[in-house]
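Extended Data, panel c. Modelled sequence:
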Amino acid sequence: MGYFIGGSPYAMANQLKDGYILLNRVILKKYSLSDLQALKSELEKLLREVRVQQPPLEDIKAIKLRNRRMQKLVSALSMIESYCAQRRKL
């Protein structure tokens, strides 16, 4: 199992959600496909949790924060999926 930033796939997913880490191909290169699958499943769980949170319509800051978090999670998921697909071709 690879070394995840933050110590575990869950911690790394949380840091991605909050914007402390930005994924790129150099970071993903360190991990095996099974490690990336574990990270992907944690990202999907967090995305479901963020989608469930419904701030009041009057709270614009909370809505923007929720949307930013969802955008970061979806972006990380798509990057992992494309990287895994490319790696499987090789």
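Residues 60-89 form the longest helix (30 residues). This feature is highlighted in the accompanying rendering.
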